[in-house]
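Need a sequence for this fold. Nothing fancy.
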């Protein structure tokens, strides 16, 4: 009996200790201080920028010497036809899920085209890969232990095994049917979106429309302003309320997503001892033709940023370039004097740098839990545990987030044990 009492006391102290720490983290650190280290899970570049739908080379097979089969995910169709163009000799063709390359000795470039009639990168594959192949005879004078060697020098699609998420994970399209219908009408009648428009054309048309209507509506929103994008758009349009970065981002995301341009919300935050490191909200849109997320910030009047080769850049591209002090060769599509103009990036670099604090945390939002929308604190807790927003920063650690999640499950487990003990005690006394 004494032994059981000792164990019971120890278990009670353990429970109280775990609950106390969990309350400190969940009630004080998360709910009051809004500590981002507990609320968001750090993510890799692949998680943030390579969606599950995008092609990735995840492995290789070697059916024969000097032959390389590329394992691609998601797996292409089993009867795919591949055209292989080398930097020497005539093109060749192969059929099957995965393309097979007959390698030339030393460094060579191979272009592999999947011929299936589709245009966007998520439906067809067109990759260029530079491979260095050295047969074992090349190293024979050095060591008999060295066999055939293969080295990927470069590839236009990623090579590796990454944790990735579907596009829909980031797209919060919880718009009512009325709002979607109204947005669709505006896109057709006022924005002039055509089914033949490219993603870039849609982004620029929507950006021009929103900024033409709302650019002079900047300011602090009225208290109690609805967080529905369509309501925010109408309130700003009729002068009921001013809007700032978050509203510009939500309004753009509404029109872009309805126009079938996948768009997600990105915010900048982070605090040290209660001092904010940044505070801003903007968007990224997914360009299906090239399979990439791109930076779009209507509040800064910046629609798109590209490098000297015309490649559109994403948020973290701009962040890294800013850290390196690189602006040469970059250009931006901006809203200026009622039009979309292309200007040197230097003209908008200071506006972007104003928010892109080196020590801030970039937060990439994921879907909300809609059934709990009216219970915001409970929704936040479940979201942190089951579907946390992803973050990127210089420290880029998830230790505090995992601690919060671990304590959440520990409290649930201990409560289950206590419930079991009470039920057992109750049934024994009966």
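Here you go.
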């Amino acid at each position: 009996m004494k032994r059981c009492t000792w164990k019971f006391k120890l278990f009670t102290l353990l429970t109280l200790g775990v609950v106390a720490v969990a309350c400190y983290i969940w009630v004080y650190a998360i709910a009051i201080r809004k500590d981002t280290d507990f609320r968001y899970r750090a993510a890799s570049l692949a998680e943030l920028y390579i969606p599950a739908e995008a092609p990735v080379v995840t492995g290789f097979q070697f059916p024969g010497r000097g032959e390389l089969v590329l394992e691609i995910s998601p797996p292409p169709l089993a009867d795919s036809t591949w055209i292989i163009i080398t930097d020497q000799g005539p093109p060749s063709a192969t059929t099957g899920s995965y393309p097979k390359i007959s390698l030339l000795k030393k460094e060579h470039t191979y272009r592999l085209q999947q011929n299936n009639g589709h245009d966007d990168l998520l439906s067809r594959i067109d990759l260029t890969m530079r491979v260095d192949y050295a047969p074992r005879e090349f190293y024979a004078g050095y060591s008999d232990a060295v066999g055939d060697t293969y080295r990927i020098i470069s590839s236009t699609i990623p090579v590796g095994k990454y944790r990735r998420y579907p596009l829909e994970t980031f797209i919060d399209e919880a718009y009512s049917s009325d709002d979607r219908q109204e947005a669709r009408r505006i896109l057709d009648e006022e924005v002039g979106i055509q089914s033949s428009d490219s993603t870039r054309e849609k982004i620029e048309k929507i950006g021009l429309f929103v900024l033409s209507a709302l650019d002079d509506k900047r300011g602090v929103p009225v208290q109690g302003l609805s967080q529905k994008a369509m309501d925010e758009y109408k309130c700003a349009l009729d002068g009921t309320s001013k809007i700032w970065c978050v509203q510009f981002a939500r309004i753009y995301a509404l029109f872009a997503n309805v126009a079938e341009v996948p768009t997600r919300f990105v915010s900048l935050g982070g605090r040290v001892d209660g001092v904010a490191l940044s505070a801003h909200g903007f968007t990224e849109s997914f360009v299906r033709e090239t399979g990439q997320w791109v930076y779009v910030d209507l509040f800064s009047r910046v629609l798109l940023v590209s490098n000297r080769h015309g490649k559109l850049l994403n948020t973290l591209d701009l962040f890294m370039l800013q850290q390196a002090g690189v602006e040469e060769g970059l250009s931006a599509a901006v809203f200026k004097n009622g039009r979309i103009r292309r200007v040197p990036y230097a003209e908008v670099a200071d506006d972007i740098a104003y928010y892109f604090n080196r020590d801030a945390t970039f937060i990439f939002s994921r879907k909300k839990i809609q059934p709990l929308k009216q219970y915001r604190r409970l929704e936040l807790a479940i979201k942190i545990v089951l579907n946390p927003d992803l973050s990127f920063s210089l420290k880029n650690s998830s230790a505090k987030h995992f601690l919060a999640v671990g304590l959440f499950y520990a409290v649930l487990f201990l409560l289950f044990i206590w419930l079991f003990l009470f039920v057992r005690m109750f049934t024994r006394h009966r």
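For context: Residues 167-364 form a domain with the C8orf32 fold fold (CATH 3.10.620).
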